Amino acid sequence: MKKEKINYFYIFLISSFIFLQGCATLGPAFQKTETIPDGVGLVYIYRPDSFIGAAVAYDVKVGETVITELPNGGYFAYFSNPGEVEFWAKTESKSAVTLDIKQNQIYYIKGTIGVGFLVGRPHLMIVTSEVGEKEISECKMIIPKKE
Amino acid sequence: MINRPFLIHWQIGIVFYLIVAVFLCSCATNIAVTPQTIGNDIKSSFQIVGKVEYDGNKDYLPRTINESSPQSDISIKYEYNITYGRDKTPQALPLFNPLTIVGFPIGEDTMVITGNLTISKEEEVIKAYTATCGLEKTRSIFSEGETFSELRKKGLLLVRDNIEIQMCQDKEALLNLIQQTGGN
Question: Residue A92: which domain range?
Fold first, then answer.
């Protein structure tokens, strides 16, 4: 009986390790990007720390390109060309927001996770600078996975 | 005396219709545009010509305005503002609500779009039009409904159409106003 318990413990430990290997790692606390290069806008994509769905991370895409994985409590600074740009994420359902990006402007996209049928669903929402600045200050930089 | 099989059959029917009703309610997107306009006939031939100040997607620009030479004394400025909203319901709540499994709404997204069109002559505003579109959609465990991108597009087109209708209905007065102030 005791041996079985130990086996379950090791299985849990190994599977947790494998699961966490696939996750993006978080770096230093939020630091404001001081300079925006000419001809682009800055989009902060962040996900406030929350217990609900904490283990679920999802990819945020522009077109078909993955720009970042969005784990719990992380943020990512993305420089985008001006014009209408759609940011989207998908697990069992799709969430998408469109920004009309202007040069040298800063935008905030807040990501959360909601209840789904089989897996948590991503939710992306554009928030005001006041809300974004406050919430992102508690997030940590997302360090991209090495390919 | 009602026999038992008939009663059970009747109860199952009621439950089925309730489920369908709740499911259908949770999929709908509610849209309201103000000011309310009578009729929706847009006279595409009617256009105000001037210097247009707008750098967004041209699809959302009212078709009742047209770009002229930069030297024009008539200036037309169009801008829109979008506000996003989300319900404050705790995300864990649907997990404890037994009605979630029959499609009861688990959350709500809202969006308010306001479009402003201002016609000026030599820095003086001679006419302004505003239209507001409110969009609201609910989410259920089975359906997320339309995305914010889809709602945004729908709302911006409705705001554009509303301003076009207002301008068309105001055609005579608007042309007189421009002529009185010496416009083209």
Answer: 26-143
Q: Does A53 map to a domain?
A: yes
Domain count, chain B: 1
Number of domains in chain A: 1
Q: How far is CA B143 from CA A117, B77, B112, in A?
A: 10, 39, 22
ipTM: 0.81
Chain B residues with CB-CB distance to A88 below 8 A = 147, 149
Summarize pLDDT for B29-43 with one digit per residue, the tens: 899 999 988 766 665
Q: Specify the CATH number for the domain of residue A101.
A: 2.60.40
**pTM of model > 0.90:** no
Rounded to a whole number, what is the distance in Å from the CA of B75 to chain A's nearest CA? 22
* Structural domain includes residue A63: yes
Set of chain A residues whose Cβ sits within 8 Å of the Cβ of B57: 84, 100
Give per-residue pLDDT as tens, A107-144.
999 999 988 888 888 999 999 999 999 999 999 999 87
* B55: chain A residues, CB-CB within 8 Å: 102
- The shortest CB-CB distance from A96 to any of B94, B107, B148 is to B148
Cβ–Cβ of B91/A113 closer than 8 Å? yes
Residues 6+ apart with CB under 8 A from B41: B165, B168
Q: What Cα–Cα distance (Å) separates residue B146 from each residue in A47, B75, B121? A: 21, 36, 41
Burial A116-144 (b: 16+ CB within 10 A, else e): beeebbbbbbbbeeeebeebbeebbebee
For residue A112, tell me if it sits in a domain. Answer: yes
How far apart CA B20 and CA B3 sit, in angstroms, is 27
Interface of A with B (CB under 8 A): 50, 52-53, 84, 86, 88, 93-98, 100, 102, 112-117, 121, 123-127
Distance CA B110, CA B40 (A): 25
Give domain status of residue A6, yes or no: no
Determine the structural domain holding residue B46 and report its residue range: 4-180
pLDDT given at position B184 = 43
Residue in A52, A102, A116 nearest the CB of B92: A52
